[in-house]
Prior knowledge:
Elements: H1 2-6, E1 11-15, E2 21-24, H2 26-32, H3 36-40, H4 51-66, E3 73-78, E4 84-95, E5 102-111, H5 113-135, E6 138-144, E7 149-151, H6 154-161, H7 173-179, H8 185-196, E8 203-210, E9 216-228, E10 234-243
Antiparallel strand pairs: 1-2, 1-5, 3-4, 4-5, 6-7, 6-10, 8-9, 9-10
Amino acid sequence: xxxxxxxxxxxxxxxxxxxxxxxxxxxxxxxxxxxxxxxxxxxxxxxxxxxxxxxxxxxxxxxxxxxxxxxxxxxxxxxxxxxxxxxxxxxxxxxxxxxxxxxxxxxxxxxxxxxxxxxxxxxxxxxxxxxxxxxxxxxxxxxxxxxxxxxxxxxxxxxxxxxxxxxxxxxxxxxxxxxxxxxxxxxxxxxxxxxxxxxxxxxxxxxxxxxxxxxxxxxxxxxxxxxxxxxxxxxxxxxxxxxxxxxx
Length: 248
């Protein structure tokens, strides 16, 4: 069992009813700087939980032992070099085969460092993108052809055209069409159909949109089909919209 446990890329642990470790695999030894000798001397798993999370972790362990708790919770953990990392800990009750009574907890610890970093990097990238788009009066839009709904363009429409959320609570293709200048609709429709049919690799067109105050603003729309259905029909488009100076 030890050999199998040592090749798994997560920490495996077992404790007794006093939270003392009775088993760990190689990953557990590496993360927490312990050895089989330490386990023989009864090292507590609590010392590897950050102080702020120890009480919650102990309470969760008690719930697992009593059979009334769930597992799979995040805690802040301490490595052997005293650096902190977020771990997802699963646990299940160990039952003594002789008495049938609870004997401890067995579970795994998953290091969430890379996942958390990836989520943070994605959030920061999106924040930078949104700031850049706002500075350049540009917005990303996302259209689901199956529902005809437009996502991600709400703030731009409110900010640029002067509408309030109550004016355009649900933005659809039909709503957008009603904002386009009547003389521009044939040109927009032709560009849309040319891209949807595969005639043009990109959707690109210029037209006027109605502002709430009755004026018109010229915009450029660029986009591309990024998802197709089982019959290869376009089902999702994504692109950008930005204001431009009136042509000519």
